[in-house]
Amino acid sequence: MWVIHPAAAIGIDDVRVVKVSSFSPCTEVTLERPLRHTDPMDEILDVDLMTFEHGSPSERRAVVDGVMRSLQTGFVYTRSDMSTSVLDDAYDTLHAFFHLPQDRKDSYSSPAARGQAGYTGLMVETAAISDTPDWKEMINWGSLVADGHPLRTKYPHRYHDPIFPEQDLPGSAALLTEFHDTLGQLQRRFLRVIAEGIGAHHSYFDTMTEEGSHLTRAIRYPPMQDAPADGGHLWAEEHGDINLITALPRATARGLQVRTDSGWVDAVPPDGHVIINTGIMLEHLTNGMIPIGWHRVVAEEGQNDERISVVQFCHPTPWTILTPAVSTVTPERPQRFSAISASDRLDQVLWEIRLVGDEITD
Is 106 helix (H, G, I), strand (E, B) or coil? Predict the structure, then answer.
């Protein structure tokens, strides 16, 4: 398999590729980036999820080792068995949505959903380290949870009814639901690799994510020349994600950059691979063993086209108590994080990125 080695210079536009035989190998938050408690490792590696699932014990172990090494950057690339036709159809539909008249897009907004369902317009989400809103617009959706389910009863603001542009784009609800479910299954499968990597049983994350409040977000970053003239806008300022892991199966243009100990490097996966990055909740559960994947989205100089990408945030159930796994607490790595519910941690973050006001309730 191929391993991607970002070069050492900050903001470099290319990466070096070398072949290695030992293994088969972005809801958002911005906080001040903490110091890492690991050796500097700047390689984003390419791994194979199917080898983990179907390979020999030694091949399986090699994938785990590759993932844990790569996640010191907070990022890893994985070969995916996602259907290209599902990806193609979903991106075609989302492109059509973002190019509807503004009043039609606005009709799919839901202010009560606080950015967790439906359409969110330009310059609404703001990074916590910035006073300048991001130059992007979004549509968000998740899975339905049955009426009467205790999760929906206790956490109604976590499980919103999806809002799809069905009136303008017939068939979009079924297509985007299939896309969401397929990507969610892939993420839960990948978490089994991480579970083994932290010394837990491979099913460690299964129960906490089975009915998790996973959120899929399609994002359109308009051309930068259309941004307000007062300047200072980026497509997305530096941030880390709040959830466990995030999957990005495709983007229509470059722009995603990862912060490493050597500076900013471009995230450019091999064709047919999904980008996986880590979030605050995973850092919490692993006692800092796996750091947050800090990243941003920027247009290169002279890059005048738009960028559309779709990410999915894999969340535990809101009632999950986030406390470091026993296997991650050692004399060399004493417990860093106290217990907090996933719901409370998410509310803290939504406040910080200005997607909520004073009305947070459970």
Answer: helix
39: pLDDT confidence band, cut at 50, 70 and 90? very low
d(CA 360, CA 362): 7
Q: Note the pLDDT tens digit of each residue in 106-150.
A: 999 888 777 778 999 887 765 555 566 678 899 999 988 888 899
Closest CA to 94 of 184, 221, 206: 221
pTM: 0.83
The phi and psi torsions of 24 (rounded to 5 degrees) equal: -95, 75
Of 345, 349, 348, 343, give the one whose Cα is nearest residue 362: 343
Complete domains list, the chain, with CATH = 2-352 (2.60.120.330)
* Residue whose structure tokens are 């999915």: 312
> Angle CA(62)–CA(69)–CA(207) in degrees, nearest 5?
80
And the tokens for 178?
């299939």
Round to whole Å and give the CA distance between 340 and 351: 16
pLDDT in tens, 61-71: 999 999 999 99
* CA angle 188–154–137, rounded 5-degree value: 60
